[in-house]
Amino acid sequence: MFVSNKIKQEIKDSVPGAKWWLPVEGAYWRSPAGPGSSVEKKGSHPAVHISYNDALHYCKQRGARLPTEVEWEFAARGGLRDQMYPWGNGFEKKTDEYLAGRFSEDKTLVKMVT
Fold it and tell me: Which residue, 26, 42, 44, is CA-closest to 34?
């Protein structure tokens, strides 16, 4: 989510080492970039600024619940059990692309052969 230069100038605090993470006064799920922003025309975008309490309330309204940590891990691994990686135990020898450097400043793309 990008915020206007005006809002950036009003920010007094930031997270050390994470310049891309900005505390925007008044930002919440209906106004993700702060006052004056909207979620209109963003129906296909992921939800942002959802607190644990927001998620609990959403589930309660729908007669559902949040997954447990075990359920979340199982789903994240695609149903595999007792595997080191989501694709299994072996680290596949292939060429992968990785972002190297500090994420916020240097987005150098390098090739690593594993």
Answer: 26
